[in-house]
Write a structure and sequence with these properties.
By secondary structure, the chain is α/β, with parallel strands linked by helices. It has 2 domains: 121 residues, Rossmann fold (3-Layer(aba) Sandwich); 148 residues, Rossmann fold (3-Layer(aba) Sandwich). Helices cover 49% and strands 17% of the residues. The chain is built from 11 helices and 12 strands. The strands form 2 sheets. A 6-stranded parallel beta sheet has the order 2-1-3-4-5-11, sandwiched between helices. Helix 5 runs parallel beside helix 6. The structure holds beta-D-glucopyranose (BGC). Beta-D-glucopyranose binds next to loops.
Length: 333
């Protein structure tokens, strides 16, 4: 063989080896996509749970995740936080199905609607995977337990506080996260029941934000245009109050409206200190996350788990904030 053909032969062999290794490597990568069960958690963890919220990047849910991760660390659990990036029922249901197919040891999620979530939750449980509902219950399903706010009661509390603050006289518009989700329906119902005996409180309009701050702002603006008599708002999910406050602050500077919000995200508290939001309903998202992991472990280990645990809920106004933080806010303004 000539020198040239030896070089060409060697080059050819090398090329074959390199391209063969590449195809093996990427071939494996293609079939081993990131399903939860493939991380072989049992070697390093006692259990593998998933927490599936309606919206992954929602600040409220990040607090639930924080609580769940803290408990996971304390009790040797591998916890995955997965779900739709933006609220989307189909993606939410699909994530539950995929987690069940991955044979995780437990699923924590919301029971957003009876017709879509109850049959799926029941099927997952029949396959042997325990489900605990968090924040929103599907009480007609076979879920092992629910931990979260008593959503009807929290709406009722909001309504009673609203009556007290407005002295029983207001034209109120409601912006709710959704017309179809269990927790939002109950928060509206509780409020309606609490104000219904007040003859000078009128519910003028109810709109939906799809739990988006931008949509809450748009709906608030539209309501103010269409119903100039509206002088109060009630927002029933974490970003509704913030969205309403943005619009009210901008367009109603000299004629402020009353706002009742939900949750205590930093921006909500900022608007309370500024006097734009008048009151908010407190929930305990960190505790929901933490306790749901503990409950799941207890259930798997055969301990008795109560079927419903209601976390605390109460109304918070500016006077309930620590004075130091109020003064700091006044200095900044
Ligand atoms: C609710 C969550 C919801 C969030 C949306 C909270 O008040 O409890 O279920 O996802 O608001 O921002």
């Amino acid at each position: 063989m000539s020198k040239l053909s030896i070089t060409a032969y060697t080059f050819g062999v090398l090329f074959f080896i390199v391209s063969f290794s590449f195809s093996i490597y990427y071939g494996i990568k293609v079939v081993t996509h990131d399903l939860p069960s493939e991380k072989k958690p049992k070697e390093t963890y006692h259990y593998h749970f998933v927490l599936i919220p309606e919206e992954l990047d929602n600040e409220y849910w990040r607090l639930v995740e924080k609580g769940a991760k803290a408990a996971a660390k304390d009790y040797g659990v591998m916890l995955e936080y997965v779900g739709p990036k933006q609220a989307n029922i189909e993606d939410h249901l699909k994530t539950i199905e995929m987690s069940a197919a991955s044979k995780v040891d437990g699923i924590m999620t919301q029971g957003l609607s009876d017709d879509q979530f109850t049959p799926l939750i029941n099927r997952v449980i029949e396959e042997g995977i325990p489900v605990i509902t968090v924040d929103t219950d599907a009480s007609n399903s076979k879920r092992m337990a629910y931990i979260g706010t008593d959503n009807y009661y929290s709406g009722y509390l909001a309504g009673r506080a609203f009556v007290a603050d407005t002295k029983g006289k207001a034209n109120v518009a409601i912006i709710t996260g959704s017309f179809y989700k269990n927790h939002q329906i109950k928060r509206v119902q509780g409020f309606q029941d609490a104000v219904k005996s007040e003859k000078d409180i009128h519910i003028i309009d109810i709109q939906e934000s799809e739990i988006s701050r931008v949509q809450a702002s748009e709906k608030a603006y539209q309501i103010m245009q269409e119903h100039p008599e509206v002088n109060a708002f009630y927002g029933t999910s974490a970003l509704d109050g913030i969205g309403i406050a943005q619009v009210v602050k901008k367009y109603k500077k000299n004629d402020p409206l009353y706002i009742m919000a939900f949750d205590t995200l930093p921006e909500t508290l900022k608007y309370i200190r500024e006097g734009v939001i008048d009151a908010t309903v407190v929930q305990e998202p960190f505790e929901m996350g933490y306790e749901s992991v503990k409950m799941m472990i207890d259930y798997i280990e055969g301990k008795k788990v109560p079927s419903v645990i209601h976390t605390n809920t109460k109304i918070l106004r500016v006077e309930d904030l620590p004075p130091a933080s109020r003064e700091r806010m006044e200095e900044i303004q």
